[in-house]
């Protein structure tokens, strides 16, 4: 079924092309012939356009998968060119786990503006398809000069920036395919495109709101973006809609019941979102509905009969929700979905009357100010008393729930829990990503004073510094080689701004300095990094004289944080970042003992886009191997956390692994004897057993048999749920 789904996605645009492409019946005038030669030059002579001469009869070239030119009435009406330059999501990745952008894009001298300036001179063009050609740069607004265009396909390139709003004026468009690029920001209002039947914006960075669209659409594909909203109820009016794919976003709230019975709906993919709640039992399904994929959401309850019944004509994918009854296979427990839904639930916006009397507003404001003054004094008194008490308390005496990345399920009031979580998340916020000037970097580091130098390597130095607001930061200096192409660097710097996560040492900004006259170095990038002062996980396990031993729940919370950081690196940005040098000393702990991964593989090339300055991987390893190597390294961290033993060689890892395997196979007492004695009495045996099991899977010698990061995270979350239930039942001092 997966292959059928993919085939449908690619067949639909082909059908659109076939329906609107006439047969060549003309000879081109010299002006349009010159335009085609200009396109050949601007595209840097791709393989599909080679062999052209002054005697080439363009209107009668035999069509091929890589080139099709159709003419009518002495004009080009269709131009279809396909290349072999890999797109952002399909590029082969080197050992660092990232594709080499400079090898896949057109050269530094390429100008996307010049290309579309030339293309818009083909005034009668109805079909334009330029796919996998390595185009890069922002899509020019002048594209709307192609007034007759009915089909536009520029997928699988490296086009970035916002989608120009001028596309909304291309009233003849029937198919718009911008998939598999680097577009970001909001989608412009496309409601005016009333003839549009196909819209494919998948595999970009668009969001957060659902776009405004015409209800004439037959196919809507918005998968793998950054959309975060409820599914809009206006889609009930999309009577022609056959295919709807919003998978791999962050859509919230319930699934509208009308979706399954839309008059024309056939394919419905809502997988890998944060959709929650129960499906109404009385919904009906369109008889033509062939595929429903709601897997990897937060749905609960039972399936309605039209989805639960087994039908040879309909495939229903529903794994990794919290469905009950006969659909409970491959499901999370109910508490998982309940907890996660609370965490992602959007704030409720109050509706205030716009006609409220001005005098009443002023009165309310005055009352609020007066009350706020009284409350402010009370809060100040309470705060000072609390601070005095906090200085006397050991940090490990604080409630454990306040330090855990994975929330427990206390029996207290739900609203109070949500308020606490919201306040905590606010404190974890980072300042907006920004581009620093060199003067600011010099100011931060006190002109790179040697007393602030805390590390030095082959690529540059690491300095401690202070922003003007007093925040402590780290400044990493990376020297880039002269061969680096500027557009490659721009695209890599764009990726840097997305490396911000609560379980990463996040990048706060950068400064790029170019030295035109330097013989060896073209430029230097200064990265401003978050500073984590509380030491590493290795420090906590190595020297118990200085730090209190971490109990089992604390260790679980830390490892879940590490797994979430790895998951973000692998899947949270495109392309994913692998080869991340995961080890104990690179897991830092903040004041609340939340894990932050440092020294991960920052996607910044140093030699013409072919190498990362922080990459430690063999250049011949593929991205899959590099990803599985991350899983192995995560397994080593788990192994050391469980046993309390720090390893320095593969043989030590194998020895500890063997001890856990024997303990797991023989008896509970044998497994306990292989664990760190400092956390004895603080864990549920089933929690330990689950963690040991996934650890051993991570350490499998065959990389292909190692689990995905999602599987690791799920098992760790299940383990801590078991631990929470055990702790809440009063078993903290005894073992099961």
Labels describing this entry:
16% strand, 17 helices, 6-stranded mixed β-sheet, Transferase(Phosphotransferase), domain 1, Leucine-rich repeat, LRR (right-handed beta-alpha superhelix), 736 residues, disordered N terminus, 11-stranded mixed β-sheet, globular, Phosphorylase Kinase, domain 1, alpha/beta
Description:
The chain is α/β, with parallel strands linked by helices and 736 residues long. It is 31% helix and 16% strand. The strands form five sheets. The protein has an eleven-stranded mixed sheet with strand order 1-2-3-5-7-9-11-12-14-16-18, with helices on one face. It has a six-stranded mixed sheet with strand order 20-24-25-23-22-21, covered by helices on one side. Strands 4-6-8-10 form a four-stranded parallel sheet, with no helix packed on it. Strand 22 and strand 23 (472-481) form a beta hairpin. The radius of gyration is 29 Å and the shape is globular. The model is unreliable at 1-10, 91-102, 346-366, 379-428 and 607-620 (pLDDT under 50). It comes from Carpinus fangiana. It holds the Pfam family Pkinase.
């Amino acid at each position: 079924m997966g292959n059928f789904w993919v085939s449908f996605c690619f067949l639909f645009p082909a059908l659109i092309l076939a329906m609107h492409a006439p047969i060549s019946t003309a000879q081109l005038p010299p002006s349009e012939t010159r335009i085609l030669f200009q396109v050949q030059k601007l595209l840097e002579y791709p393989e599909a356009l080679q062999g052209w001469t002054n005697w080439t009869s363009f209107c009668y070239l035999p069509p091929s998968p890589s080139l099709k030119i159709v003419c009518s009435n002495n004009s080009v009406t269709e131009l279809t060119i396909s290349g072999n330059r890999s797109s952002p999501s399909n590029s082969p990745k080197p050992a660092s786990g990232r594709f080499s952008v400079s090898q896949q894009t057109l050269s530094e001298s390429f100008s996307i503006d010049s290309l579309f300036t030339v293309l818009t001179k083909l005034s009668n063009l109805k079909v334009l398809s330029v796919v996998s050609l390595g185009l890069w740069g922002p899509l020019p607004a002048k594209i709307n000069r192609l007034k007759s265009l009915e089909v536009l396909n520029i997928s699988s390139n490296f086009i970035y920036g916002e989608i120009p709003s001028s596309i909304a004026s291309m009233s003849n468009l029937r198919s718009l395919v911008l998939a598999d690029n680097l577009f970001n920001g909001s989608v412009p209002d496309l409601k005016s495109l009333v003839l549009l039947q196909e819209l494919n914006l998948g595999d970009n960075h668009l969001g957060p709101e659902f776009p405004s669209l015409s209800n004439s659409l037959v196919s809507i594909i918005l998968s793998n973006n950054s959309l975060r909203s409820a599914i809009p109820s206006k889609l009930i009016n999309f009577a022609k809609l056959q295919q709807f794919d919003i998978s791999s976003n962050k859509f919230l709230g319930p699934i509208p019941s009308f979706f399954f019975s839309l008059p024309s709906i056939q394919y419905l993919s809502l997988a890998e979102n944060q959709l929650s709640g129960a499906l109404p039992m009385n919904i009906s399904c369109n008889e033509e509905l062939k595929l429903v994929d709601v897997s990897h959401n937060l749905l609960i309850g039972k399936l309605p009969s039209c989805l639960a019944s087994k039908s040879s004509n309909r495939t229903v994918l529903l794994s990794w929700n919290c469905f009950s009854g006969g659909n409970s296979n491959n499901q999370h427990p109910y508490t998982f979905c309940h907890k996660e839904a609370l965490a992602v639930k959007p704030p409720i916006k109050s509706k205030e009357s716009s006609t409220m009397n001005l005098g009443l507003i002023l009165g309310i404001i005055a009352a609020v100010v007066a009350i706020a003054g009284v409350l402010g004094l009370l809060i100040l008194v309470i705060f000072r008393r609390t601070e005095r008490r906090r200085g006397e308390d050991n940090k490990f005496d604080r409630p454990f729930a306040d330090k855990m990345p994975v929330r427990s399920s206390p029996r207290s009031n739900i609203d109070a829990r949500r308020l606490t979580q919201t306040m905590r998340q606010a404190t974890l916020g980072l300042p907006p990503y920004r581009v620093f000037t060199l003067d600011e970097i010099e100011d931060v580091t006190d002109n790179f004073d040697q007393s602030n130098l805390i590390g030095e390597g082959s690529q540059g130095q690491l300095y401690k510094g202070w922003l003007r607001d007093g925040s402590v930061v780290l400044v990493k200096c990376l020297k880039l080689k002269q061969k680096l192409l500027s557009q490659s660097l721009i695209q890599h710097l764009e990726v840097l701004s997305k490396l911000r996560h609560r379980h990463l040492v996040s990048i706060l900004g950068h400064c790029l300095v170019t030295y035109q006259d330097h013989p060896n170095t073209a430029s230097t990038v200064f990265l401003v990094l978050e500073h984590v002062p509380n030491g590493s996980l290795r420090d906590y396990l190595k020297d118990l004289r200085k730090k209190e031993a971490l109990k089992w729940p604390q260790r679980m919370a830390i490892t879940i944080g590490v797994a979430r950081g790895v998951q973000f690196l692998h899947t949270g940005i495109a392309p994913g970042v692998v080869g991340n040098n995961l080890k104990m000393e690179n897991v830092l702990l903040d004041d609340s003992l939340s894990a932050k991964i440092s020294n991960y593989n920052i996607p910044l090339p140093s030699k013409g886009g072919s190498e990362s300055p922080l990459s430690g991987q063999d250049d011949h390893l593929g991205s899959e191997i590099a990803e599985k190597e991350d899983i192995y390294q995560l397994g080593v961290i788990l192994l050391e956390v469980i046993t309390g033993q720090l390893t320095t060689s593969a043989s030590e890892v194998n020895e500890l692994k063997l001890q856990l395997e024997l303990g797991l196979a023989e008896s509970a007492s044998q497994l306990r004897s292989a664990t760190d004695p400092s956390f004895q009495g603080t864990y549920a045996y089933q929690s330990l057993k689950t963690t040991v099991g996934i650890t051993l899977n991570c350490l499998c010698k065959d990389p292909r048999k190692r689990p995905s990061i999602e599987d690791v995270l799920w098992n760790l979350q299940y383990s801590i749920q078991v631990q929470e239930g055990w702790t809440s039942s009063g078993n903290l001092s005894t073992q099961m």
